[in-house]
């Protein structure tokens, strides 16, 4: 079969929908990503997604496993959308066979009237019934997008028809279904696949149903006297924790549906609501490593992240935040969303995936110890985050190098090659030679058959205050937090050189003047007890340019006087980072970081260097003995820097400590 559908799972055939995007994903299979990201992607696919016993994921639909209130109906769609992305990136016969077989098995569970659920008919609208149906629809649409198999689209249409029959106007309101405690958000998130079915079928009844669902959000209901008000409250700037019910993952899924509805309607109010919501989440909930939530709920996390939190940063929240950023990047072209995708990728997502790629964490703390996800549902040999984590990883080829109105847009700096057709039909090849973010140098080479005038846009991260950008040795000015848009006649052999500002940055916690962290480029650093031991003294971070008020090497009278506490909005300072050559196995990056030791009064002050590593490597032994921390209280009491047994606040009282399954 001709591989005409291999562009991406997010293929949108309706022309008007595609025109809503400011930036569009490239062909996934044209992104040959290498380096650390390529390694993570390969492990995620080879040892994880495509190595799963995928036949187990259809069991809930065949045996109606969720009648007791379960949520296993979500597993198939989460896994399948990941598998479809993997196939889009690496199309081959083996992966195609897996996709086809899995869909074939799922459709055996579809009833004659189109119903496709992991609940029996007697339990229609059970706790996670519509949620599971949503994921089944997303999987069927993904199969159609990647293969062109009209049987999958037909099955998705039939399943949506049956849903309209039981939950359309005059029927059961979806805003009064699912778990009352999360205010029907899980059921309401079915908006996304309903709009996708419309985009692919063109049948207006699906658009009408989507509009009806959004209308229901604004109406009072049995679950919520004021209604969900997802659009109104987002536009009003209401904090996420106060919108509807604060279940982060499901709430963001509803806003993903609004993105798709905006694509087909062009109703600016919908996009404005999602943008306002996204910026509010970024300000109030997203923690330093690019994720949020406590116990899966919004929790004012940006301000609370220095605490030892209960069940912090669910991987499903990380993934859905990244997917929402990806949506907003496409629809707005604003590089802030690419900046956040990069931070989430290198930190929260890398940290949640076991290095081998076969398992994931459920929650990811900023202090204590890492924990793998428990085996939530043995019959499926999976958990929600294990099924969902790969979706965040596998959108990376889509946003790495995108297509703008006037040429390619480079968002991700990684060793690799990307090919893209220009408007003229000319094939452009972009090659990156770099070890970023380990090193600051990036060389981008242009390969094109004949000279042509177009624009290459380069993302300059907001934190990059001292970028060097040259083209064939010609210096180009650029501003942090923008795209450097270079319009010229490009020819084969043209070279772009970037030097990123990878100075260590001291980050002050949004909720505390006294808690600091260290970042280098997009990477958060952490202390790990494999390299730093507890000691009985206090330390302070020692920024660049610290003034020694007195220096007397012989008499030991060296000292640094304290300074007033700065305000929270004061820009951070820089700090010297020295790369460590001999680091423990399993650590990606490590640096010596200077700290100030104050012995007493004006006497014996000196610099002590501690080793900090990248957040994703910190605690990656997933052991009670491997402890780490990100936020550094000032002063940092070194005798108590690594709290023990934090795994017990990640799970319920009687749980046993999870292990990575063999």
Task: Describe the structure in your own words.
The N terminus is likely disordered. It is built from 18 helices and 23 strands. With 662 residues, it is an alpha+beta fold. Helix 4 packs antiparallel against helix 5, helix 6 runs antiparallel to helix 7 and helix 15 packs antiparallel against helix 16. Strand 14 and strand 15 form a beta hairpin. The protein folds into three domains: 389 residues, Glycosyltransferase (Alpha/alpha barrel); 89 residues, Golgi alpha-mannosidase II (Immunoglobulin-like); 146 residues, no CATH class. Helix content is 33%, strand content 16%.
Number of helices: 18
Count of extended strands: 23
Mean pLDDT: 94
The low-confidence runs, each spanning 5 or more residues with pLDDT under 50, are 1-13
Q: What CATH first level of the largest domain would be assigned? A: Mainly Alpha
CATH 2nd-level architecture of the largest domain = Alpha/alpha barrel
Structural class given helices, strands, pairing? alpha+beta
* N→C terminal distance: 37 Å
């Amino acid at each position: 079969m001709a591989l005409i559908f291999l562009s991406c799972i997010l293929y949108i055939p309706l022309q008007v929908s595609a025109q809503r995007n400011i930036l569009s994903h490239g062909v996934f299979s044209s992104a040959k990503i290498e380096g650390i990201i390529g390694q993570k992607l390969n492990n995620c696919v080879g040892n994880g997604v495509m190595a799963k016993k995928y036949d187990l994921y259809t069991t809930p639909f065949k045996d109606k496993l969720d009648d007791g209130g379960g949520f296993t109906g979500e597993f198939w769609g989460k896994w399948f959308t990941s598998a479809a992305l993997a196939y889009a990136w690496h199309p081959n016969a083996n992966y195609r066979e897996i996709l086809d077989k899995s869909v074939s098995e799922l459709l055996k569970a579809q009833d004659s009237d189109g119903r496709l659920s992991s609940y029996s008919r007697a339990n229609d609208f059970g706790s996670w019934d519509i949620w599971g149906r949503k994921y089944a629809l997303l999987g069927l649409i993904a199969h159609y997008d990647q293969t062109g198999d009209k049987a999958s689209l037909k099955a998705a249409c039939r399943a949506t028809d049956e849903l309209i029959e039981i939950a359309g106007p005059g029927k059961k309101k979806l805003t009064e279904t699912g778990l009352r405690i999360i205010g029907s958000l899980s059921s309401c998130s079915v908006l996304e696949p309903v709009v996708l079915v419309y985009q692919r079928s063109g049948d207006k009844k699906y658009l009408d149903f989507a509009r009806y669902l959004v209308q229901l959000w604004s109406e009072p209901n049995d679950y919520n006297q004021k209604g969900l008000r997802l659009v109104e409250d987002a536009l009003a700037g209401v904090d996420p924790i106060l919108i509807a019910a604060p279940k982060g993952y499901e709430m963001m899924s509803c806003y993903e549906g609004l993105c798709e509805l905006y694509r087909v309607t062009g109703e600016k109010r919908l996009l404005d609501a999602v943008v306002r919501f996204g910026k509010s989440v970024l300000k109030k909930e997203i923690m330093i490593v690019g994720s949020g939530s406590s116990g899966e709920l919004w929790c004012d996390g940006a301000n609370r992240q220095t605490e030892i939190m209960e069940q912090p940063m669910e991987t499903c929240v990380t993934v859905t935040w990244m997917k929402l950023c990806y949506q907003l990047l496409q629809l707005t072209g604003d590089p802030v969303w690419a900046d956040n995708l990069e931070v989430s990728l290198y930190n929260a997502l890398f940290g949640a995936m076991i290095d081998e790629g076969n398992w994931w964490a459920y929650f990811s703390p900023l202090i204590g110890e890492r924990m793998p996800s428990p085996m939530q549902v043995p019959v499926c040999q999976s958990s929600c985050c294990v099924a969902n984590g790969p979706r965040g990883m596998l959108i990376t080829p889509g946003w790495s190098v995108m297509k703008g109105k006037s040429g390619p847009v480079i968002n991700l700096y990684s060793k690799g090659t990307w090919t893209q057709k220009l408007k003229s039909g000319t094939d452009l090849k972009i090659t990156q030679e770099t070890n970023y973010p380990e090193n600051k140098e990036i060389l981008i080479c242009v390969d094109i058959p004949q000279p042509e005038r177009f624009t290459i846009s380069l993302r300059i991260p907001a934190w990059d205050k001292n970028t060097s950008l040259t083209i064939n040795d010609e210096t180009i000015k650029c501003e942090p937090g923008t795209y450097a848009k270079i319009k010229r006649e490009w020819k084969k052999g043209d070279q772009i050189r970037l030097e990123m500002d990878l100075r260590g940055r001291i980050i002050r916690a949004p909720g505390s003047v006294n808690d600091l962290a260290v970042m280098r480029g997009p990477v958060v650093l952490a202390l790990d007890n494999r390299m730093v031991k507890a000691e009985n003294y206090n330390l302070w971070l020692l920024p660049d340019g610290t003034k020694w008020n007195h220096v007397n090497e012989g008499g030991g009278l060296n000292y640094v006087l304290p300074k007033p506490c700065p305000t929270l909005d004061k820009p951070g300072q820089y700090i010297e980072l020295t790369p460590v050559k001999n680091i423990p196995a399993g650590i990606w990056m490590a640096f010596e970081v200077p700290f100030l030791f104050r012995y007493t009064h004006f006497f014996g002050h000196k610099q002590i260097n501690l080793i900090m590593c990248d957040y994703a490597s910190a605690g990656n032994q997933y052991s009670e003995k491997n402890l780490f921390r990100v936020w550094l209280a000032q002063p940092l009491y070194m005798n108590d820097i690594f709290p023990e047994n934090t795994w017990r606040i990640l799970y319920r009282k009687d749980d046993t400590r999870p292990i990575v399954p063999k």
